[in-house]
Amino acid sequence: MGLLPYFIFGCVAVLYGSFSQAQTLADLKENTQHELQTFLYRFSHNVPNASLDPNRWQSITAIETSSGVEVGDDSYLNLEVLTYLHSMEDNHHDSLHTFERRNRYAAVFSPKVVSLVYESDDFDFTAGLDLVDFGYAELHNSVSNLGRSNSLHSTHSFELGVPLASYRRYIGDDTLSYTLMPIEMASLVPELSNRWKGDGSGSYPSLPDGSSVSEIETTPLSIQPKNIRHLMLYEATRSSFDYYGFGFFGPSPFSIVRQNNLTYEKHNPWSWQLGGGVNKVSGAQKYYFDMMYQSSPNRIDENFVRGTIGGIFKNSSWSKDFGINEIILTTEYARDVRTRDQSDRPDLIFSSKKSRSGLNTLLAKIELDVDDEWTVFSVFTQNLTGNDHSEALGVRFKVNDSLKYYGNATFFDGKAGTPIGSQRANDVFEVGLKWSF
Residue 234 to residues 127, 258, 289, 346: CA-CA distances in angstroms? Predict the structure, then answer.
């Protein structure tokens, strides 16, 4: 575990000292908010192979709890916890996950954010466990790949924080920030008998020995200076548009597959990134663009440019002629282009291309707000290169701003060896609710 226990101990010591000067737990309880979502779902097909959980009826419940409290004149504490219950096999192992780095299973209780923020007139400083997210795209983010998530259910994913220290400077209406991420914590992805890992074909070809890349255990980076990730981010606000620019260096968030002695492993090569984006609002419409470039030394990975362009279009005038209060269309195109090949060294088996999403992808979401209570929605994703695709169709009934009921179906199609095609046996119907309190 290296320096991780000391990092945790330091954070806990600071927080404990802060608690001793505040109204503490009473204030945290008073400021607490919860967002509950629970869904019962059923797969349309039997499992594609006997190693997967055969139960076609499953359920998932998640509660995202957030709170905060001032711990002095200039500081405050943010807390967020994810309560997660999923009936699928090989999802749970422990009740509580603290800050261990190699969570193969989801805990019932997992900290999302535990951060202490000091704020002055000119800057703020954050330390602890926090989210890392930037970019304007709504359906596919091509540039912000430094966070972690619980993605044990393909259509119900939850962001999780990473250990960091961040300094942000205020420059008029703009901000310039530097974030240091010294410790990698693994995201949670479907493994073992979790049906959401797909049919096992994945998007990688077989390894030279005939085994599968999916059998390689993903381990977090060792804790040492060369594995620290660094992010510089400038965010600007103008009267008619917003923009940002960023620079990154450290281990790439995209992994290659290489042979180390006689063992195949996933490896995050050192890399640097440059990117930015623009967001413009014009009346009821919004247009945005995100783009980044990544380069790795010694051709250990291919260099590439990736980005997303899209917009949100709303109409509430002619839609009323059809008995619909408002139509909201979100549409995006994500593209990833290689600019330099990976080296042909014999130890380099696969580049990071197969670990990157949005290579040549069209995405769309349409929402029909029929009235103040009923909304009909549809989501569509098409990978144009492999011709694999997914469609979702659903309805939402809004009781009030806090309580909403859902019913929807999601369908997957495509050839084996494509990202969405590997889920083609997982067509699913689900009903559920979301409740904020």
Answer: 19, 35, 16, 40
Q: Residue 253's closest CA among 94, 133, 173, 335? A: 133
- Condensed to tens digits (0 to 9), the pLDDT of residues 15-56 reads 545 455 445 677 788 889 999 999 999 999 999 888 899 999
| pTM (2 d.p.) | 0.88
Instruction: Give every CB contact of residue 106 below 8 A, 6+ residues apart in sequence.
Output: 84, 86, 91, 92, 97, 150, 152, 188
Q: Which amino acid is at 42?
A: R
Q: Which two three-digit tokens encode residue 61?
A: 């419940």
CA separation for the pair 344, 364 (Å, rounded): 38
Residue 4 has pLDDT above 70, yes or no: no
Cα torsion 311, 312, 313, 319 to 10°: value is 150
**366 - beta bridge partners?**
329, 378
Cα–Cα nearest to 66, from 11, 111, 129: 111
Smallest CA-to-CA distance from 106 within 87, 90, 91, 96 is with 91
Name all domains of the chain by residue range, CATH numbers in brackets: 4-428 (2.40.160)
Structure token pair of residue 327: 């139509």
